Amino acid sequence: MYILKTEASFDSAHFLAGYDGKCSNLHGHRWKIILEVQAEELKDDIQHKGMYVDFGELKKDLRDLADSMDHALIIEKNSLKETTLEALKSENFRIIELDFRPTAENMAKYFYEKIKKLGYNMKAVTVYETPVNSATYME
Ligand SMILES: Nc1nc2c(c(=O)[nH]1)N=C([C@H](O)[C@H](O)COP(=O)(O)OP(=O)(O)OP(=O)(O)O)CN2
Ligand SMILES: [Zn+2]
């Protein structure tokens, strides 16, 4: 089995609605996503000979996903008052509303599923919220 790993980062803000502690406050992270894909066999065409996938392609797909979350306020749907949300949107802030609480665990699963849809044979996605805290999702 071959395992390929790449990573990308983005900077965004979030808060944990309903959480009893400092993370219920709006705060930012440099989120790091580590993607691992796997393959039993390598390709044989001249361009990809000896590769599962070109790191350049893999890195770009992960980079695009990271960029889609960059410099945003990531919120769980219905966790802000409608008036607050409208006020933030009226300032043209970039808001990303998710169906789940934006914890490292949920974000890892979310990224895993997004990348899987691109056709990769997935192993795991790890999300670092801080340099020492990470969560990994795998099936
Ligand atoms: N299992 C999880 N626990 C927590 C998550 C999470 O995603 N999964 N998230 C948070 C907060 O978002 C917080 O940003 C990270 O927590 P914490 O390490 O407590 O924060 P700091 O980096 O500021 O650590 P200090 O050592 O207090 O400076 C909370 N828990
Ligand atoms: Zn946090």
TrEMBL record:
The catalytic site is made up of 23, 71, 129
Domain of life where this protein originates: Bacteria
Which InterPro entries does this chain map to?
6-PTP_synth/QueD, 6-PTP_synth/QueD_sf
The cofactors named for this UniProt entry are:
Zn(2+)
Query: What are the record keywords, sorted?
Result: Lyase, Metal-binding, Queuosine biosynthesis, Zinc
GO MF term list: 6-carboxytetrahydropterin synthase activity; metal ion binding
Catalyzed reaction equations: 7,8-dihydroneopterin 3'-triphosphate + H2O = 6-carboxy-5,6,7,8-tetrahydropterin + triphosphate + acetaldehyde + 2 H(+)
Identify the metabolic or biological route this protein is part of. Answer: Purine metabolism; 7-cyano-7-deazaguanine biosynthesis
Residues given in the record as Zn(2+) binding sites:
14, 27, 29
| EC annotation from Swiss-Prot or TrEMBL | 4.-.-.-
Tell me the Gene3D superfamilies matching this sequence.
Answer: 6-pyruvoyl tetrahydropterin synthase/QueD
Q: How is the cofactor bound?
A: Binds 1 zinc ion per subunit.
Q: Which GO terms describe its biological process?
A: tRNA queuosine(34) biosynthetic process
Family designation: Belongs to the PTPS family. QueD subfamily.
Name of the protein? 6-carboxy-5,6,7,8-tetrahydropterin synthase
